[in-house]
Amino acid sequence: MVRKSTVIAGLMLVIVFFWSTPFLWTLVASFRPDNSGGIHMASLLPDFVPTWANFAEAFESGDFAVYYVNTAIVAFGILAIQIVTISLAGYAFARLDFPGRDFIFYVFLLQLMLVPPILIVPNLRTVVDLGLYGSLLGVMLPYFASAFGTFLMRQTFRQIPRDFEEAAFIDGAKWWQVLWHVLLPMAKPGLIAFALVSLMAHWNEFLWPLMVLNEPSKQTLTIGLASFALGTEGGKEWGLLAAGTLLVMFPLLALFAVFQRQFVNSFMFSGLKG
Amino acid sequence: MTSIATHAPLLSAVRRKRRTLRARLARRAWPYLLLAPSLLLLAAFTYLPIVRVVWDSLHDKVHGTTATLFVGLRNYSDLFADKAFVQSVVNNLVYAVGTVPLSMALALLFALALQRSGRINAVMRALLLFPSMVPLVAAASLFFFIFLPGVGLFDHYLGKLGIRGANWLGDPDVALWSLIGITVWKNAGYYMLFYLAGLQTLSSDVLEAATIDGANGWQRLRHVIVPLLAPTTAFVLVIALINVLTQVDHVIVLTKGGPSNSTKLVLYYIFEQAHENFAAGRAAAASVVSVSFLLAVSLFSLKTMERGAHAAS
User: Fold this and answer.
1) pLDDT, tens digit, for every residue of A43-90?
2) Which residues constitute the domain of residue B28?
3) Is residue B211 part of a domain?
4) Which among B31, B129, B132 has the least Cβ separation from residue A92?
5) What residue ranges define each of the domains in chain A, with the CATH number in brackets?
């Protein structure tokens, strides 16, 4: 008799295979030499000599280098400012006692739900009023504060015993020295968790930058890929599209490979994105 | 001279008092100063926009000027009179019913099947998680090809089985379900993570007790595991509902709301009104409707959220 767990394992293997076919196809198609859009484009079998031609063409025709730089500026720029704002606010909520603390904390929590995409219309007007329409700063500005990050840092700081700071305070350290030299190094797991979620969210974002940015030279990867996808529709250069998609996904998958455990933890903790 | 001698301590006492007062004031203000950058930004991009969008929804531009005119609820009556908006609400409901229960059920089943540690399970978990890590735009551009009639990945392999595929994105009766398929594919692995974490918190004693009492696999799932995972389910449900309302990247890339409005979701409608039709009042009214729904979900679940986050940490 076949054991039930074996059946389940076999079934899962089949399901996971089907689940992965879109990626499998991307990988195969992006290295397939013939990009004429023939009948074999859909084949998942790598029955060819792999070529870099699709990637080279994607880089030439798609300005991917510019998109990479812009996306990196946006994602890392947001993260850098966020680390400052969430550390300060997280510290205040975790360590200080002040009137209205719980109320303000709930005000923060509420923001977790009111995710920015729903407010694109008024936020776009704010960005226009500030003279930031069309600039990368305009894309970044609404994300400089993060309720989720504040929440995460508050939890992380709370888990650190107070003895360390008290010792530093007795030695005459200032609060910012304590925060920078004592608390932040100990909060590294929380920071990494937040950094992964934030980087991923803003690397992947599409609708908001699409509304704010107007010049080709300022576009991000997702916008570039979308216009790329719409552009190939007529030409049926599917190998090229697969290569372009892979170029957009690759940094994330690489990051995932390196930080797999933290990724899973932070992913789970977040629920909501950066 | 004596006057100086007698006044000196008094003066320094006043100074000291003033200094301690200032120090105390600084100490009082300090927490608020630390919160100020975050609060200002949250106010500017979350709370004020809500006020602004409510105000906008009650006003209309006077043609040819920058002046605005109070129009009461006319934007709302226009909005609900717009067939495209009503259709987008219906579509969004179908989209929610199609994506949320299915992706959550798959997530739970995946988690149950892959909860044991081990290298193969770890790889399979990672592969199921992959779709949730790539941009929705990237997923959409892959499915562009997958759904291609005739030569796409779907039709190619369905054809080998002798099945004729549908016009996945071009048929008004099918297109929304194709988008639902993409969303389930993309999110199930993500929700699986929460169930994996939830399963870890279940004590094995309870499951063993149920097994000893003669409960079979289905009974254990139905009467023990699912009820005990209720907080996780509530948490995932909130995330899934937010996703349903806030993610339309695939609509923009694949269908642009068509064919004949069959894939128009509410946020896409808002995007279209604001971005293409410049109907600010109507876009604002639609935003208010969406925000109210999100607020209702959030107020309802604030407690659950905190519980869920604790369970996951």
Assistant:
1) 777 777 777 878 888 777 768 888 999 999 999 999 999 999 999 999
2) 1-40
3) yes
4) B31
5) 58-270 (1.10.3720.10)
